[in-house]
Write a structure and sequence with these properties.
295 residues; alpha/beta; Rossmann fold; 11 helices; 7 strands
């Protein structure tokens, strides 16, 4: 087992939420088997997953969720499903590169390695979290040579600088995934990041999540004071959000074109029948692409 106090605490929350939702709501068909399998392996390697198999613990987990951000697990489960479906819609010939920014304990890179559909896979995350993740994967005996796991601190490093340091810089990408990352960055850092993406990856599809700016708050609607305090204590406060109606102009100022915005609560109404469980509101999924460079 690996124990590390420096890994992203919110990344652990997302992984636990996925397994909690899968165990607690089996009647809601959202969970991809491979995603569940890989996530459980990572959580068990961190000694963080066994209790989620116990009904009494999931009862406590449900109470804690209602006292912090009600419906967050449901939201995370939908978020993962939408992103995986976005990845799966591409054919083998279209997937030259998959880049995952801020992967945390997400397992999309492992799914991509397993299905051998993507020619080149790169995952970037904070050095501490990435070190622990790679160590876990090696301890599990997995061949991760097909994915380049890199440490990147977006608060202190430019994406373009990281690529320039690589022995084999990424020349193009088909899909760039940035899930649950931008809320932890300042607007200045987000602009730098998006401009770097638009410069390096002309023609790629960029799928990302962003928080709504709800009356000056960048949190999920109904987030308790305790949840906000906890985020600050673990050093992962939410710093940025934007109203969906303003996202198009913001992206255009960073040389990106907005293609689509998805609201997980609306997705439930359109895709699931007679689901009474609450979905946390406040984070959206968006798809964008860089504007084509002129010759």
């Amino acid at each position: 087992m690996i124990y590390c106090n420096s890994v992203s605490k919110t990344a652990l929350v997302v992984a636990k939420n996925l397994i909690f939702f899968h165990r607690e709501y089996p009647q809601i068909d959202l969970s991809d088997p491979a995603t569940v399998q890989w996530t459980e392996l990572l959580l068990n390697e961190l000694n963080q997953g066994n209790l989620l198999n116990r009904k009494w613990y999931r009862g406590l987990f449900r109470i804690l969720e209602k006292l912090s951000i009600h419906g967050l697990a449901f939201h995370h489960a939908i978020r993962k499903k939408i992103i995986l479906e976005f990845y799966n819609q591409f054919t083998d010939d279209e997937l030259d590169n998959l880049i995952i920014v801020g992967g945390g304990f997400d397992v999309l890179s492992l799914i991509a390695i397993e299905n051998e559909k993507t020619k080149k896979i790169t995952e970037l995350d904070s050095p501490a979290t990435q070190f622990v993740k790679v160590s876990m994967l090696k301890n599990l005996g997995l061949d991760i040579s097909k994915c380049n796991y890199l440490g990147l601190d977006l608060n202190n490093e430019r994406l373009s600088h990281k690529f320039n340091e690589m022995n084999e810089p990424i020349k193009e990408a088909s899909i760039i995934v940035c899930e649950g990352v931008l809320m932890y960055l300042t607007e200045e850092k987000i602009r730098e990041f998006l401009i770097d993406l638009s410069f390096h990856f002309n023609g790629s599809k960029f799928i990302f999540t962003f928080m709504n700016n709800h009356e000056g708050s960048f949190h999920f609607e109904g987030t308790s004071v305790l949840a906000k305090i906890w985020l600050s204590l673990v050093g992962e406060p939410f710093l940025w959000g934007i109203k969906p109606i303003h996202l198009k102009l913001f992206l255009e100022s960073c040389n990106m074109r907005l293609l689509e915005i998805i609201d997980t609560s609306e997705w439930v109404n359109d895709n699931l029948v007679e689901v009474k469980e609450k979905v946390a509101v406040g984070e959206f999924i968006a798809v964008a692409t860089p504007f084509k460079k002129s010759c």
